[in-house]
Each structure stands twice: as structure tokens, then as C-alpha cells.
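QA checklist item 7 of 12: single-chain prediction sanity check.
[x] sequence parsed
[x] length recorded as 88
[x] structure emitted
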Amino acid sequence: MRIRVRRTGGFAGIERHAEVDTSGRPDASEWHALAEQAVAGGHSTPPVGVPDGFSYEITVDGRTFYAADPRLTEEQRMLVSRVLKEGA
């Protein structure tokens, strides 16, 4: 499974993006479960965020969904955080 996150917005307007490929990882099942839960709470179009908040474009195996602060689900927040931390 490939998971890609693109974060835009925020006070400084700095864009960040990262991608994780879970194939061959010993924790792949954790990633898959988290990604499925995050996708379930996503939007098919970019939602309206708040001033200086972050907006997210999250793609899981070619399927893209959107989320924005402050209305991220806990699963979306965890997935975004892990991908931006561990991804390349």
C-alpha cells in the first residue's frame, strides 16, 4: 500500500509532503488498518478550513481524499503525523 500526504496552509504557508510504501514492512497491517479508518472520515473534495489552518490531500493506493484542520478525525491526524514523520 502506498500512502501519500500533502499538507498545505498554516501560518507560514509552507507545503510538506511525504510518502510511505508499506509493502515489506513488519507493521504493514497497522498502516492498512489506520489508512482504512482515515479514508472512512475523508471528503471527496477539499473542505473549507480555518484561517492559518492546515489542509490535507491524502492518497491511499491511488484513491485521494481531503481533510482540513480543525476537523480531522483522530485516525486522520495519526496517519498524517506518521506519514510526515516516517515518509520520504
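[x] summary fact logged: The mean pLDDT is 93.
[ ] second reviewer sign-off
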